[in-house]
């Protein structure tokens, strides 16, 4: 894997150290997460973040274990880091960090206090909500190490305050149980019990959200480190509290072995692919130990069907996980209703509110069968896939229907945003894209051809599917090219002066990246034209992927910043989306255009934000600072897929 390590110049500078985040997933939807410098900058950061019934319903448990070293001289040195609502950062343990490494996906810190060197390693037990934190004396000593446990138990999206109930902490052998929800275990436990008031999260302040919370200092662990090699370890786990996990050092070793096996199974061609293969593993989870699913992004997203299906080939077929992928596709097929795939909202509700998620599902099934030769799955899912086409021909929810005049797919209903550009501000869609969106119709044409191919593989007649495919393809080629030299983004859209359903329609020629799918999909309706692709690239391409809108558009928003309304308003109005690099590279490959240098910026990004991973979004203007989730499934999956495809 790529070498991810930082020395004292990065570790000791709070701005640099706090802007680089690490993630250790547990395989069931929870995680440990923080920054290189140890400062918690988000409400979502913690050493034990526990998933609920769905990955999105997480709770923050153990927040931090703050180390303090008592030297032979009697001096006590604190190695933790907290920012307070006053603006003070205290303690400032990051100033004593001489190195941070991400080794096999696991973080390792090394503090130097003169001749004394203390190392910390952290891992989660694969398949269980359990974290192990191991501290080792590397040099110097003897010293005494204390670990102060800052705790809470709250929804990951909120905060807990001292004016509410005091957390219940019950003493048990070698530790405590907090709120009956999770257990702490380690040496020399001494209960404390007081509030730490006004802990500040700078990233929440940047996002326009409430940035402060109060933490409960539950107690501290302590142990002697007499000679190099001695350790003091703490474990914390949720779920079956009476089932003690393995020793901490064994958990670290188990996690390390598993991560190496994940990489080996993917058979990476180089260090970047190895890093992306391990990054992809974070998103494949089994909530509650049940059926496999995909987390769209850490730290705040759960499972979203559109994200899952866009990510499918990269997460499963490029990493040697076809059997798990087969299981996932079968489970999602069972959610089809009126020809639409269920979309599990982060609230836990099941909704049917995307026009493209179902079409991406058709694509995922087709790719699975094509890549693996698993025609049995194609045969099994064929009846369900036919219901998708039948429902779209007859018309289904939200005005989603095939226009019999041209065979293209139209969609839209008042107040809805059904494409991937689905942001809302105060309930009003920013880009409703009512009418016939370009990528939706590229996916529809691709889906018809993919289904026709599966039908023929099953020995059945696909003539009607091919007829509809030909009609839609001819209409696409006739209608989507715009006088501007690129493709219309939406055909038959309500004119701005008219509400949905009004008399006037127009064709929207805004320069957006959605058109890339018209050239990139396996059964794309258009052959790439170098001149057109160069126009698109000139207006949209950045080092981290295409922008969602060209900078010369009046609606362009160059900085994805501010409160929720400002961020949602700019989400698809110029913000960079790294996942779109996949369709761009595919289109260039099909057009015989070189993309040898297109990965340079995004590969460098692997060490800049979410370590070893790819962010959800970035600013549309230079320096294209990363925004959104630091760890995003489709960003990782698409980079891995097209990079591997080009080997």
Automatic annotation (TrEMBL):
Entries under InterPro entries matching the protein: 6-hairpin_glycosidase_sf, 6hp_glycosidase-like_sf, AGL/Gdb1, GDE_C, Glycogen_debranch_N
One Pfam family per UniProt: GDE_C
Residues annotated as domain Glycogen debranching enzyme bacterial and archaeal type N-terminal: 20-227
Segments forming domain Glycogen debranching enzyme C-terminal: 279-641
TM regions (residue ranges): none
Stored Gene3D superfamilies: 1.50.10.10
Name under which the protein is recorded: Glycogen debranching enzyme family protein
Species name: Micromonospora parastrephiae
